[in-house]
Amino acid sequence: MAGLGEVCSHVGAILYALLAAVNKLSGTACTDKACSWNEPSMAAIKTVGYAEGSQIDFTKAQRKRSADGCDDLPPVKIPPPTQDECTALYSMLHSSESTEKQPVTILSVIPGLAKRYIPRAVQLNIPAPLSQMYKPQHRSLSHQELQAKREEVFTGLSITEEQCRVIENETRPQAKCAMWFDQKAGRVTASNIRAACHTDPDKPAVSLLKKLCYPVAYKDPNNNTPHSLRWGTEHEGTAVEEYTKTMESHHTNLTVRKGGLVINPQYPWLGASPDGILTCDCQEMGVLEVKAPSSLDNSTLGEKSKQDSTFCLKEVGGKLFLKRDHQYFYQVQTQIHLTQASYCDFAVWGPGKGGNGEMHIERILPDTDFLSPCVKRLANL
Protein backbone atom coordinates (compact mmCIF):
# COMPACT_ATOMS: atom_id res chain seq x y z
CA MET A 1 0.00 0.00 0.00
CA ALA A 2 3.07 2.24 -0.12
CA GLY A 3 2.29 5.59 -1.78
CA LEU A 4 -1.40 5.43 -1.10
CA GLY A 5 -1.36 6.68 2.50
CA GLU A 6 -1.16 10.34 3.61
CA VAL A 7 1.98 9.90 5.68
CA CYS A 8 4.14 7.77 3.41
CA SER A 9 6.15 10.73 2.05
CA HIS A 10 6.91 11.92 5.58
CA VAL A 11 8.05 8.46 6.62
CA GLY A 12 10.33 8.38 3.61
CA ALA A 13 11.86 11.73 4.52
CA ILE A 14 12.53 10.52 8.05
CA LEU A 15 14.20 7.38 6.74
CA TYR A 16 16.47 9.43 4.45
CA ALA A 17 17.40 11.67 7.42
CA LEU A 18 18.25 8.63 9.55
CA LEU A 19 20.39 7.23 6.73
CA ALA A 20 22.32 10.50 6.43
CA ALA A 21 22.85 10.64 10.20
CA VAL A 22 24.15 7.07 10.31
CA ASN A 23 26.54 7.76 7.44
CA LYS A 24 27.88 10.83 9.21
CA LEU A 25 28.34 9.03 12.51
CA SER A 26 30.01 6.02 10.95
CA GLY A 27 32.11 8.05 8.51
CA THR A 28 35.58 9.50 9.21
CA ALA A 29 36.05 13.26 9.21
CA CYS A 30 39.13 14.82 7.61
CA THR A 31 40.28 16.00 11.03
CA ASP A 32 40.20 12.42 12.32
CA LYS A 33 42.99 11.45 9.92
CA ALA A 34 46.68 12.17 10.21
CA CYS A 35 48.01 15.02 8.09
CA SER A 36 49.14 13.96 4.64
CA TRP A 37 50.55 15.53 1.51
CA ASN A 38 48.24 16.41 -1.31
CA GLU A 39 48.25 13.64 -3.86
CA PRO A 40 49.22 15.03 -7.26
CA SER A 41 47.54 13.84 -10.39
CA MET A 42 49.18 11.18 -12.51
CA ALA A 43 49.69 13.71 -15.31
CA ALA A 44 51.69 15.97 -12.99
CA ILE A 45 53.80 13.06 -11.78
CA LYS A 46 54.77 12.15 -15.34
CA THR A 47 55.94 15.70 -16.16
CA VAL A 48 58.00 16.27 -13.00
CA GLY A 49 61.20 14.33 -12.54
CA TYR A 50 62.99 13.37 -9.36
CA ALA A 51 65.62 15.78 -8.01
CA GLU A 52 67.47 16.72 -4.84
CA GLY A 53 65.92 19.41 -2.64
CA SER A 54 68.70 21.86 -3.46
CA GLN A 55 67.84 21.54 -7.13
CA ILE A 56 64.10 22.18 -6.75
CA ASP A 57 62.69 25.68 -7.31
CA PHE A 58 60.14 26.32 -4.58
CA THR A 59 59.28 29.83 -5.80
CA LYS A 60 55.56 30.45 -6.08
CA ALA A 61 54.24 30.75 -9.60
CA GLN A 62 52.83 34.24 -8.94
CA ARG A 63 56.23 35.44 -7.66
CA LYS A 64 57.95 33.98 -10.70
CA ARG A 65 55.53 35.74 -13.04
CA SER A 66 56.10 39.11 -11.33
CA ALA A 67 59.88 38.66 -11.44
CA ASP A 68 60.02 37.65 -15.10
CA GLY A 69 61.85 40.20 -17.19
CA CYS A 70 63.76 41.68 -14.25
CA ASP A 71 67.49 41.52 -14.69
CA ASP A 72 69.96 41.47 -11.84
CA LEU A 73 71.45 44.96 -12.00
CA PRO A 74 74.85 45.64 -10.49
CA PRO A 75 74.88 47.95 -7.42
CA VAL A 76 75.61 51.60 -8.05
CA LYS A 77 77.72 53.50 -5.55
CA ILE A 78 75.93 56.71 -4.52
CA PRO A 79 78.19 59.31 -2.88
CA PRO A 80 77.02 60.82 0.43
CA PRO A 81 75.50 64.33 0.25
CA THR A 82 77.80 67.26 0.76
CA GLN A 83 77.44 69.67 3.68
CA ASP A 84 75.99 72.31 1.36
CA GLU A 85 73.38 69.85 0.07
CA CYS A 86 72.40 68.90 3.64
CA THR A 87 72.14 72.55 4.64
CA ALA A 88 69.94 73.29 1.62
CA LEU A 89 67.68 70.32 2.44
CA TYR A 90 67.32 71.35 6.09
CA SER A 91 66.54 74.93 5.09
CA MET A 92 63.88 73.73 2.67
CA LEU A 93 62.32 71.49 5.34
CA HIS A 94 62.44 74.34 7.86
CA SER A 95 60.63 76.63 5.40
CA SER A 96 57.97 74.01 4.68
CA GLU A 97 57.58 73.48 8.44
CA SER A 98 56.76 77.16 8.90
CA THR A 99 54.38 77.20 5.93
CA GLU A 100 52.55 73.93 6.62
CA LYS A 101 52.69 74.38 10.41
CA GLN A 102 53.62 70.73 10.70
CA PRO A 103 56.79 69.63 12.52
CA VAL A 104 59.50 67.84 10.55
CA THR A 105 60.95 65.27 12.93
CA ILE A 106 64.48 65.18 11.51
CA LEU A 107 64.95 68.84 12.43
CA SER A 108 64.69 67.92 16.12
CA VAL A 109 68.31 66.67 16.00
CA ILE A 110 69.73 69.44 13.81
CA PRO A 111 71.61 72.13 15.77
CA GLY A 112 70.12 75.56 15.24
CA LEU A 113 66.78 74.19 13.97
CA ALA A 114 65.66 72.11 16.96
CA LYS A 115 64.30 74.98 19.07
CA ARG A 116 60.72 74.14 18.14
CA TYR A 117 61.13 70.70 19.66
CA ILE A 118 62.44 71.87 23.02
CA PRO A 119 59.60 71.41 25.55
CA ARG A 120 57.94 74.73 26.30
CA ALA A 121 58.41 74.23 30.02
CA VAL A 122 62.18 74.02 29.44
CA GLN A 123 62.20 77.07 27.16
CA LEU A 124 60.34 79.13 29.75
CA ASN A 125 62.42 77.86 32.69
CA ILE A 126 59.34 76.50 34.43
CA PRO A 127 60.12 74.37 37.50
CA ALA A 128 59.46 70.66 37.35
CA PRO A 129 56.08 69.51 38.71
CA LEU A 130 56.07 68.60 42.39
CA SER A 131 54.95 65.10 41.44
CA GLN A 132 58.46 64.42 40.10
CA MET A 133 59.81 64.58 43.64
CA TYR A 134 58.47 61.08 44.19
CA LYS A 135 61.22 58.48 44.53
CA PRO A 136 60.39 54.73 44.66
CA GLN A 137 63.12 54.12 47.23
CA HIS A 138 61.28 56.33 49.73
CA ARG A 139 58.64 53.63 50.09
CA SER A 140 61.04 51.56 52.18
CA LEU A 141 61.61 54.38 54.71
CA SER A 142 60.13 54.26 58.18
CA HIS A 143 57.50 56.77 59.27
CA GLN A 144 60.07 58.79 61.18
CA GLU A 145 62.43 58.83 58.19
CA LEU A 146 59.60 59.91 55.91
CA GLN A 147 58.76 62.78 58.25
CA ALA A 148 62.38 63.93 58.15
CA LYS A 149 62.41 63.66 54.36
CA ARG A 150 59.16 65.63 54.20
CA GLU A 151 60.67 68.45 56.26
CA GLU A 152 63.73 68.47 54.03
CA VAL A 153 61.68 68.65 50.82
CA PHE A 154 59.15 71.15 52.19
CA THR A 155 61.76 73.62 53.42
CA GLY A 156 63.58 73.34 50.09
CA LEU A 157 60.57 74.30 47.97
CA SER A 158 61.07 77.54 46.10
CA ILE A 159 59.80 79.33 43.02
CA THR A 160 60.65 82.75 41.62
CA GLU A 161 58.20 85.54 40.87
CA GLU A 162 59.08 85.30 37.18
CA GLN A 163 58.32 81.57 37.14
CA CYS A 164 54.99 82.24 38.87
CA ARG A 165 54.14 84.88 36.28
CA VAL A 166 55.00 82.56 33.38
CA ILE A 167 52.99 79.66 34.83
CA GLU A 168 49.92 81.86 35.32
CA ASN A 169 50.21 83.18 31.77
CA GLU A 170 50.71 79.74 30.19
CA THR A 171 47.90 77.99 32.11
CA ARG A 172 45.03 80.38 31.40
CA PRO A 173 43.21 77.74 29.30
CA GLN A 174 43.08 75.80 32.61
CA ALA A 175 41.56 72.34 32.00
CA LYS A 176 42.51 72.51 28.30
CA CYS A 177 46.18 72.94 29.23
CA ALA A 178 48.47 70.03 30.19
CA MET A 179 50.76 72.34 32.15
CA TRP A 180 47.83 73.36 34.35
CA PHE A 181 47.41 69.74 35.47
CA ASP A 182 51.17 69.21 35.83
CA GLN A 183 51.73 72.23 38.06
CA LYS A 184 48.61 71.54 40.16
CA ALA A 185 49.84 68.06 41.08
CA GLY A 186 51.15 68.04 44.64
CA ARG A 187 49.82 71.50 45.49
CA VAL A 188 46.86 72.24 47.75
CA THR A 189 44.60 74.23 45.44
CA ALA A 190 41.98 76.75 46.53
CA SER A 191 39.01 74.50 45.76
CA ASN A 192 40.41 71.86 48.15
CA ILE A 193 41.53 74.15 50.97
CA ARG A 194 38.57 73.47 53.24
CA ALA A 195 38.80 69.70 52.83
CA ALA A 196 42.55 69.81 53.49
CA CYS A 197 42.07 71.93 56.62
CA HIS A 198 39.48 69.55 58.05
CA THR A 199 41.15 66.22 57.26
CA ASP A 200 43.05 64.23 59.88
CA PRO A 201 46.79 64.99 59.47
CA ASP A 202 47.72 61.51 60.70
CA LYS A 203 45.25 59.78 58.39
CA PRO A 204 44.20 62.11 55.56
CA ALA A 205 41.28 61.15 53.32
CA VAL A 206 42.42 59.01 50.39
CA SER A 207 40.04 60.79 48.00
CA LEU A 208 41.61 64.14 48.94
CA LEU A 209 45.13 62.81 48.39
CA LYS A 210 44.14 61.55 44.94
CA LYS A 211 42.68 64.93 44.00
CA LEU A 212 45.78 66.77 45.12
CA CYS A 213 48.41 64.39 43.78
CA TYR A 214 46.73 63.09 40.61
CA PRO A 215 44.53 65.90 39.22
CA VAL A 216 44.83 64.62 35.66
CA ALA A 217 43.04 61.42 36.75
CA TYR A 218 39.90 63.53 37.25
CA LYS A 219 40.02 64.62 33.62
CA ASP A 220 37.87 61.88 32.11
CA PRO A 221 39.12 61.06 28.55
CA ASN A 222 35.68 59.64 27.69
CA ASN A 223 33.94 62.84 28.81
CA ASN A 224 32.01 60.92 31.48
CA THR A 225 32.13 63.98 33.71
CA PRO A 226 29.48 64.19 36.44
CA HIS A 227 26.45 66.20 35.39
CA SER A 228 27.06 68.89 38.01
CA LEU A 229 30.62 69.56 36.81
CA ARG A 230 29.64 69.43 33.14
CA TRP A 231 26.75 71.85 33.73
CA GLY A 232 29.02 74.26 35.58
CA THR A 233 31.67 74.16 32.86
CA GLU A 234 29.15 74.64 30.05
CA HIS A 235 27.51 77.65 31.72
CA GLU A 236 30.62 79.31 33.15
CA GLY A 237 30.96 81.49 30.06
CA THR A 238 27.34 82.62 30.36
CA ALA A 239 27.88 83.49 34.01
CA VAL A 240 31.00 85.56 33.21
CA GLU A 241 29.15 87.41 30.44
CA GLU A 242 26.23 88.22 32.73
CA TYR A 243 28.62 89.40 35.43
CA THR A 244 30.45 91.67 32.97
CA LYS A 245 27.21 93.21 31.68
CA THR A 246 26.01 93.84 35.21
CA MET A 247 29.24 95.33 36.58
CA GLU A 248 30.38 97.42 33.61
CA SER A 249 28.29 100.35 34.80
CA HIS A 250 29.92 100.17 38.26
CA HIS A 251 33.50 100.42 36.97
CA THR A 252 35.59 102.53 34.63
CA ASN A 253 37.08 100.47 31.79
CA LEU A 254 36.39 97.13 33.45
CA THR A 255 38.37 94.22 31.99
CA VAL A 256 37.71 90.57 32.80
CA ARG A 257 40.30 88.08 31.61
CA LYS A 258 40.74 84.37 32.25
CA GLY A 259 42.97 83.45 35.15
CA GLY A 260 45.61 80.74 35.07
CA LEU A 261 47.17 78.80 37.92
CA VAL A 262 48.35 81.36 40.46
CA ILE A 263 51.29 80.41 42.69
CA ASN A 264 52.70 82.74 45.30
CA PRO A 265 56.48 82.52 45.93
CA GLN A 266 55.77 82.79 49.65
CA TYR A 267 53.56 79.67 49.49
CA PRO A 268 54.95 77.48 46.66
CA TRP A 269 52.90 74.50 47.86
CA LEU A 270 49.56 76.29 47.34
CA GLY A 271 47.72 77.18 44.13
CA ALA A 272 44.57 78.89 42.90
CA SER A 273 42.84 79.24 39.52
CA PRO A 274 40.30 82.09 39.66
CA ASP A 275 37.72 82.25 36.91
CA GLY A 276 38.70 85.82 36.14
CA ILE A 277 41.19 88.59 36.88
CA LEU A 278 39.46 91.97 37.24
CA THR A 279 41.16 95.24 36.35
CA CYS A 280 39.71 98.73 35.97
CA ASP A 281 40.69 102.40 36.31
CA CYS A 282 38.68 102.99 39.48
CA GLN A 283 39.78 100.17 41.80
CA GLU A 284 42.71 97.91 42.52
CA MET A 285 42.99 94.46 40.96
CA GLY A 286 40.41 91.87 41.98
CA VAL A 287 39.49 88.28 41.16
CA LEU A 288 36.26 86.69 39.99
CA GLU A 289 34.83 83.33 41.02
CA VAL A 290 31.61 82.22 39.33
CA LYS A 291 29.36 79.27 40.12
CA ALA A 292 26.59 77.82 37.98
CA PRO A 293 25.07 75.06 40.15
CA SER A 294 23.05 72.43 38.34
CA SER A 295 20.92 71.79 41.43
CA LEU A 296 18.82 74.94 41.01
CA ASP A 297 16.37 73.32 38.58
CA ASN A 298 13.38 75.68 38.51
CA SER A 299 14.15 77.24 41.90
CA THR A 300 15.36 80.77 42.43
CA LEU A 301 18.53 81.40 44.42
CA GLY A 302 16.46 82.57 47.37
CA GLU A 303 14.24 79.49 47.30
CA LYS A 304 17.25 77.19 47.02
CA SER A 305 18.92 78.81 50.05
CA LYS A 306 15.84 77.96 52.14
CA GLN A 307 15.25 74.47 50.76
CA ASP A 308 18.82 73.12 50.73
CA SER A 309 20.99 73.43 53.84
CA THR A 310 24.10 72.51 51.81
CA PHE A 311 23.62 75.39 49.36
CA CYS A 312 26.44 77.94 49.40
CA LEU A 313 24.16 80.94 50.04
CA LYS A 314 22.07 81.80 53.06
CA GLU A 315 19.48 84.53 53.50
CA VAL A 316 20.01 87.10 56.25
CA GLY A 317 17.70 90.08 56.57
CA GLY A 318 16.23 89.48 53.14
CA LYS A 319 19.66 89.38 51.44
CA LEU A 320 21.78 86.46 50.28
CA PHE A 321 25.32 85.93 51.57
CA LEU A 322 28.02 83.32 51.03
CA LYS A 323 28.29 81.06 54.08
CA ARG A 324 31.58 81.56 55.92
CA ASP A 325 31.87 77.84 56.66
CA HIS A 326 31.29 76.80 53.05
CA GLN A 327 34.14 75.50 50.89
CA TYR A 328 33.59 78.38 48.45
CA PHE A 329 34.43 80.93 51.17
CA TYR A 330 37.71 79.10 51.80
CA GLN A 331 38.29 79.05 48.05
CA VAL A 332 37.82 82.78 47.43
CA GLN A 333 39.87 83.74 50.50
CA THR A 334 42.73 81.60 49.19
CA GLN A 335 42.43 83.21 45.76
CA ILE A 336 42.60 86.69 47.30
CA HIS A 337 45.56 85.70 49.46
CA LEU A 338 47.65 84.14 46.67
CA THR A 339 46.88 86.74 43.99
CA GLN A 340 47.22 89.60 46.50
CA ALA A 341 43.96 90.98 45.13
CA SER A 342 42.01 93.65 47.00
CA TYR A 343 38.72 91.74 46.68
CA CYS A 344 36.89 88.84 45.06
CA ASP A 345 33.54 89.15 43.34
CA PHE A 346 31.69 85.90 44.06
CA ALA A 347 28.94 85.36 41.47
CA VAL A 348 26.29 82.63 41.42
CA TRP A 349 24.30 82.29 38.19
CA GLY A 350 21.12 80.30 37.66
CA PRO A 351 18.67 79.95 34.76
CA GLY A 352 15.89 81.38 36.94
CA LYS A 353 12.22 80.75 36.52
CA GLY A 354 11.14 81.08 32.92
CA GLY A 355 14.75 80.88 31.72
CA ASN A 356 15.34 84.61 32.17
CA GLY A 357 18.52 84.09 34.19
CA GLU A 358 19.34 85.17 37.72
CA MET A 359 22.63 86.23 39.30
CA HIS A 360 23.90 86.91 42.79
CA ILE A 361 27.06 89.03 43.03
CA GLU A 362 28.80 89.48 46.37
CA ARG A 363 31.97 91.42 47.12
CA ILE A 364 34.25 89.35 49.37
CA LEU A 365 37.08 91.23 51.09
CA PRO A 366 40.32 89.73 52.45
CA ASP A 367 40.02 88.09 55.85
CA THR A 368 43.53 87.35 57.07
CA ASP A 369 42.34 86.25 60.50
CA PHE A 370 40.18 83.60 58.84
CA LEU A 371 42.78 82.19 56.44
CA SER A 372 46.01 82.40 58.44
CA PRO A 373 45.17 79.47 60.76
CA CYS A 374 44.31 77.37 57.70
CA VAL A 375 47.63 78.13 56.02
CA LYS A 376 49.55 77.27 59.19
CA ARG A 377 47.64 74.02 59.57
CA LEU A 378 48.34 73.05 55.96
CA ALA A 379 52.04 73.80 56.40
CA ASN A 380 52.17 71.17 59.13
CA LEU A 381 50.28 68.44 57.29
From TrEMBL:
Residues 1-27 form the signal peptide. It comes from the Eukaryota. Residues 180-341 form the YqaJ viral recombinase domain. Keywords: Signal. One of its GO terms (biological process) is DNA repair. InterPro entries: PDDEXK-like_dom_sf (IPR011604), Restrct_endonuc-II-like (IPR011335), YqaJ_viral_recombinase (IPR019080). This is YqaJ viral recombinase domain-containing protein. The lineage of its organism: Eukaryota, Metazoa, Chordata, Craniata, Vertebrata.
